[in-house]
Amino acid sequence: MKELTSLQTRNLATLCAVMLANGIKSYSGTLDGQGDEGTSIDAHMEMADGSPATEETLDIEVEVIEPNYGGATGGEKSTTYNLYDALDDLAESIFDSVHSDIFNNDGGQGSVTITAEGKVIVEASDLVTVTENRPDVVFGIDGKETDEDAEVLEESSATAS
After folding, report:
1. pTM score
2. For all residues of the chain together, what is the average pLDDT?
3. Which pLDDT value is given to residue 73?
4. Which end of the chain is more exposed for a tag (fewer CB within 10 A), N or C?
5. How far apart are alpha carbons 122 and 111 in whole angstroms?
6. Cβ–Cβ < 8 Å for 117, 49
7. Torsion-angle region of 143 (φ positive above 0: left; ψ -120 to 50: alpha; else: beta)
8. Which of the four pLDDT bands, split at 50, 70 and 90, describes residue 11?
9. How many CB atoms lie within 10 A of CB 69?
10. Which residues contact 62 (CB under 8 A, 6 or more apart)?
11. Between these two residues, 96 and 69, which has the higher pLDDT value?
12. How far apart are CA 123 and CA 142, in angstroms?
């Protein structure tokens, strides 16, 4: 069973408290990636009355915890973001911990929904290219298709060499 990291869980609690206090019902972000391309997020927030979040709501400042990669000690540091960006970062972090292979091969796509009550729904899918082999077509010297099997012809020309 998958679990959020301690850092993700603490930030989720902080962001959900801010969402509840400001009448925000949910955040939803869709993500996609392909090859070596990065993840892109198309997100929106919905207010409790069903309307889209206002610009003022998106710009609410919120303090979240991040890993501190600099310095000898590592650890964590506190950073201030607007609510929208903080939710984007959390959604991408959660998505990557569940479905980290979005960048490889044909890529993938999915969505993350975070409700003000703290429920997180992650949907993910892989994009896959399927190759179907079609039967070989053999043409005779006259330019017309024959009923001969290409594999039999390839084997007989290999043994004749």
Report:
1. 0.74
2. 83
3. 62
4. N
5. 6
6. no
7. left
8. very high
9. 8
10. 14, 15, 18, 80, 81, 82, 83, 86
11. 96
12. 56
Q: Which two tokens stand for residue 1?
A: 């069973």
* Strand, helix or coil for residue 70: coil
H or E element in which residue 113 lies = strand 108-115
- What is the residue whose two structure tokens read 């099997």? 149
Single-letter residue type at 137: V
- Which H, E and C letters describe the chain, residue by residue? CCCCCHHHHHHHHHHHHHHHHCCEEEEEEEEEECCCCCCEEEEEEEECCCCECCHHHHCCEEEEEEECCCCCCCCEEEEEEEHHHHHHHHHHHHHHHHCCCCCCCCCEEEEEEEECCCCEEEEEEECCCCCCCCCCCCECCCCCECCCCHHHHHHHHHHHC
The two structure tokens encoding residue 76: 């964590």
